[in-house]
Amino acid sequence: MPDRPPDEQSAVDDAALRVANAALRAEVEELRASEAAVRADHAELKTMVAVLTGQVAQLERVVREQADEIAELKRQAAGDSSNSSRPPSSDAPWAKKPAKMRSSRTRSGRKSGKQPGSSSSSRCLVVALPDRRPGRAAGDPAGPLPVL
Question: What pLDDT does 62 receive?
Answer without folding.
Answer: 97
